[in-house]
UniProtKB/TrEMBL annotation, chains A, B:
Domain (FAD-binding PCMH-type) ranges: 37-218
Keyword annotations of the record: FAD, Flavoprotein
Any one Gene Ontology molecular-function term assigned to this protein's record: FAD binding
Family listed: Belongs to the FAD-binding oxidoreductase/transferase type 4 family.
The protein's name in its UniProt record: 2-hydroxyacid dehydrogenase
Species assigned in the record: Pandoraea horticolens
């Protein structure tokens, strides 16, 4: 597929080096993180700044070329992978990687879309500020991608999703116009909320080129603890108590089942099962404290001792140092790694109202067993947000690949139906991309789908911005 | 203006008692809070529930009748007042006043649009939870109106605006369809953010009938202090220090000039000037603490003593009790009352980046003096959000009415230009309504105005939802 006049114009605009055509150059852009989707592209285009992005979009419009914006290409729903036609272009935002401004007194930072999340965090830290968005891919994902997918992560309980951390945006519209909405204001009620429309739209309504982000005071200390409990209902009771006693100091609340902890210990023998006895569930709690480490530890100890007194918690470990805190987080972060090491799983990124988590698990675990007897549940996640990574692993004696082939679609359909019955979301933090756009539509009302289509048609009447993503067929 | 078939259909739908036609019944709905706007209406319609609202909107569409939604009618920008034609109807949401659900474990509450804000706060408190939105009109404004205008208030520093406090909405579209988006989820990335599009749209894109709101753990104590300082720059340094030392416990940070405090003491002699000496500025700080009153007071004392050591603060009063805390808040809340008591002011509800507040005041005060020599500045507001009520009072020897008549438009234009030059907003928390829709357009880019019009046309092609509000002529 060659479109010579278009490619010539791209080269004139971007320079020859930034119009990639050879598969050795383009391959990494054409396959998604989980290697579920592999596309083709007319070219991979690497503009250097927002003005070039705008000019490039106008060029694509003039030539009728569909565009797929891409950041760090770490998405988990195929939202940044082109289709198989070879007629689309990938617009990589990675060269837009400047931190434009840090305004410490305004608690804001303005970053271009292609900045790595880790670099945004570092720029904030350099100014003695915290940018709290934190997720596994932070070393390779970009802030533009985080905003386009409204990324979540481990600190949502206290700081919100990417959406809540953004005050202003710069966006190139599907017509190639540059909207400068880079406001650093905490209050601004002068018209429609365009910002939040572009956030989470996965590049289907426009292309984010920069953002003004909220910063926070850096806490003096972070302290974690691990609590052993008998059930998710006890974990919910602990959450309640922790929110009452620690209020906004509670920045992490992660649930892990006994099976998850044993899996980690089995795959990574240096990470031992943390308790002397086995308990059905464990919760990792994190406090972020602006006073001192001593204050945080004292509060955690009082909290857990109250929880033991109230028979909510059976055993607990409070970290004695930052190193111990990190070790507890490492345990939590090892769960997906241990999972991958044992073969493919049927994965679900779901959320239900926090109060519904125990009921959801009680209802859904048996459904899965009925479909796939002996399947092992790898249930963990951000309980404080009602967000579970509700993963289903093959029975010990069944090959993971054939397990997936046989059960994936039935299990996923049952899980999603149950999520919907519990008023939940089938994509809590990963977005829809191409992976879940049709599944999601099954649970949305015709009114909502019609409103989404109205928006898409109004903003992108030619349908050239990341086609066949988010919206259902 | 009579439209008999339409009114008959309205009576059939709502019952005769809820179709108000006589001026004795309708008057209160047709004039805004500040009595700046007085409209006429074909009728004032009072549906009882969301289904009736939807049916009513379909009826209005069928008869081509423009609709003006109204909550508590406490808005400050004329957004809920009909025009003078007598062809529009006011749809009052006040009868939709049920708290549909409180889910304490999910930290959510679902309220109908017509619930008074104070009743939402009370329902949360009954479940030992906090709904933190708080503003002067809370006893008479409705949560639907708060969301339609994205209301701010005194707790935005910690909890955000109304937008940040809402998880889900129920909305009647301009076509009279009911969208059930009442989700109680902390994470949900399944499509476009319709919720935030309706929030702050002042009823021009649809009609909010209910909302699912975020609750928080009730703090164990709230403690306030009043600090005396030499300048807004010192206040900014204090904010910085307070955020570092108290982090998210800081829930209020209100600036008041010496003139404001003297004005209160003059109008309400029982409220004395709080310090032994006069200082140029005062800051009210509030901490909300989940531990104890003693912990909060200790932290406030450490904070203020550090601020004195660093020569940021000249003098300080830390409240010794809840009563003293309330007395300090009362001082702050008396400023607008003292202002009203001395006659009309030229009022501005503006925001700039927090870091720009000192520069904005240094630049703008002289501009106002040049236009209106001797004018007295009544400057106070939510410094933590960069939101100032930057009000201009007549010189002592000039009649307020004639002062307004002579200077209002020139002063306001100069203030707004300066706000814009400092990257600020000319409507921080009151919205645009009819008051500021044209002024606001002056500072918006053609791209942004075009996107706003695109949205309006796509959602409300007939232009029947709250016409001539928000968008410029």
């Amino acid at each position: 597929m060659i479109n010579a006049p278009f490619l010539t114009a791209c080269r004139d605009l971007l320079g020859r080096d930034h119009v990639l055509l050879e598969s050795i150059d383009t391959d990494a852009y054409l396959v998604d993180q989980r290697k579920r989707y592999r596309g083709h592209a007319l070219a991979v285009l690497r503009p250097a700044n927002a003005a070039q992005v705008a000019a490039l979009v106008r060029l694509c419009v003039a030539h009728g070329v569909p565009m797929v914006p891409q950041g760090g290409n770490t998405g988990l729903a195929g939202g940044a992978t082109p289709d198989a036609s070879g007629r689309q272009v990938v617009i990589s935002l990675r060269r837009l990687d400047r931190i434009r401004q840090v305004d410490a007194n305004n608690m804001t930072l303005t970053a271009e879309a292609g900045c790595l999340l880790a670099n945004v965090q570092a720029a904030a830290a350099e100014a003695q500020r915290l940018f709290p968005l934190s997720l596994a891919a932070e070393g390779s994902c970009t802030i533009g991608g985080n905003l386009a997918t409204n990324a979540g992560g481990t600190a949502v309980l206290r700081y919100g999703n990417a959406r809540e951390l953004c005050l202003g945006l710069e966006v190139v519209t599907p017509q190639g116009e540059l909207w400068d909405g880079l406001r650093g204001l905490r209050k601004d009620n002068t018209g429609y909320d365009l910002r939040d429309l572009f956030i989470g739209a996965e590049g289907t309504l426009g292309l984010i080129t920069a953002a003004t982000l909220k910063l926070f005071a850096q806490p003096a200390a972070r302290m974690t603890a691990l609590a052993a409990l008998d059930s998710p209902a006890h974990a919910l009771a602990l959450l309640n108590l922790a929110q009452r006693m620690a209020g906004p100091l509670l920045t992490g609340f992660e649930l892990m089942s006994d099976f998850c902890l044993r899996l980690v210990a089995q795959v990574f023998p240096q990470q031992r099962y943390p308790f002397a006895h086995r308990y059905a569930q464990a919760v990792l709690l994190e406090l972020s404290d602006n006073e001192s480490e001593a204050h945080a530890r004292d509060l955690l100890e009082r909290l857990l001792s109250a929880a033991v007194d109230q028979s909510i918690v059976r055993d607990a470990i409070v970290a004695n140092s930052l190193a111990q805190s990190n070790a507890l987080w490492h345990l939590r972060e090892s769960i997906p790694l241990a999972q991958s090491a044992t073969g493919l799983n049927i994965k679900h990124d779901i959320a239900v109202p926090v109060s519904q988590v125990p009921a959801f698990l009680d209802a859904t675990d048996p459904l899965v067993q009925r479909i796939a007897p002996g399947a092992r549940m790898v249930t963990f996640g951000h309980l404080g947000d009602g967000n579970l990574h509700y993963n289903v692993m093959a029975p010990e004696d069944i090959d993971p690949d054939s397990f997936l082939g046989r059960y994936q679609s039935a299990v996923t359909a049952a899980v999603h139906d149950s999520v919907h019955a519990h008023h939940g979301s089938i994509s809590a933090e990963h977005g829809l991309g191409q992976l879940k756009r049709n599944a999601s539509a099954k649970y949305k009302s015709p009114v909502e789908l019609a409103l989404m289509r109205t928006l898409k048609t109004a903003f992108d009447p030619l349908g050239l911005m990341n086609p066949d993503k988010v919206l259902p067929d």
